[in-house]
Amino acid sequence: MSDPTLLVVDGLKATYVHAITALHDVGFTLAEGEIVALLGANGAGKTTVLKALSNLLSAARGQIRAGSIRFAGRDVTATRPADLVRAGLVPVLEGRHCFPSLTVEENLISGGLGRGSTRREIAADLDKVYAHFPQLAEKRRTASGLTSGGEQQMTAIGRALMSRPRLLVLDEPSMGLAPLVVQDIFATLQRLNREEGLSLLVAEQNAAVALRVAHRAIVLENGVTVLSGTAAELTARDDIKAFYLGHKAPVPVPSRASSTPAFAG
Ligand SMILES: Nc1ncnc2c1ncn2[C@@H]1O[C@H](COP(=O)(O)OP(=O)(O)OP(=O)(O)O)[C@@H](O)[C@H]1O
User: Fold this and answer.
1) ipTM of the complex
2) Of residues 224, 260, 252, 209, the one with CA closest to residue 37
């Protein structure tokens, strides 16, 4: 039987400029067909993990000091970023990075060209992207720089889909977008997972939206994996609710016996 584990991150330690330790010990796995959410506060290390997965850390003056990353049996740290994309590990990094002066369609096509797709494959893949994101079909001739933030995020995801990914790695797809647009994008990601078996790793500060579509989640704190479990398990935890889902933490109530506040249960 083939191994269903697509990604294995083990004991990952990473620094920037050989001095700042961003990741101390990060480990998790992702099975084929899974949606895994990578949660954590600002600066917890999510982007660093995603850059390491695409072997793009050195471009940010980062270094892996220990541990390993394997994607579909390959040693990621020994594989060039472009070869990782060809193997099916495709990142959608923070900030969307569309070419603003190219049209939406030209941006999408660039994803297919990077992979070396034929004209026929590109045409078929474009149809698929437009079926998932009908809004992009309407804007196909518009310069990306003139489209909305949501449309730019859809273009960035669509361009990644043109590379025919096995695992899509997304960094904060909800960032700066209106709640309805975020819902729409996550619904499309979920459909891609259900209908096409696409595996997804989604780093998010917006835990509520990520936990709604994820099968499992991992929580990072100061560069360490501190929790992992099914989305249902994590959603039910009071500490996760308090820190990441915007629910109120236990409220201090004044004690009669002393002036020191005690915590209500
Ligand atoms: N290029 C860099 N040079 C030096 N330190 C960096 C660099 N990028 C990130 N860091 C530091 O590494 C740590 C992890 O940052 P990272 O961006 O991975 O966190 P994050 O969870 O993605 O947060 P955010 O949501 O703000 O992007 C932080 O302490 C950050 O200041």
Assistant:
1) 0.95
2) 209
C-alpha distances in Å from residue 197, one per residue of 159, 165, 190, 192: 18, 11, 10, 7
Record the pTM: 0.90
Positions of CATH 3.40.50.300 in the chain:
1-88+165-176+196-247
Three-state DSSP at 28 gives: strand
Please give the pLDDT value at position 3: 67
Interval between CA 49 and ligand 1 midpoint (Å): 10
Contact of 231 with 216, CB cutoff 8 Å: yes
What is the structure's pLDDT at 94? 76
Residue 53, pLDDT score: 97
Fold type of domain 1-88+165-176+196-247: Rossmann fold (3.40.50)
Helix (H) or strand (E) holding 71: strand 62-71
Best residue among 9, 15, 18, 20 to mutate for probing ligand 1, ranked by most atoms within 8 Å of CB = 20
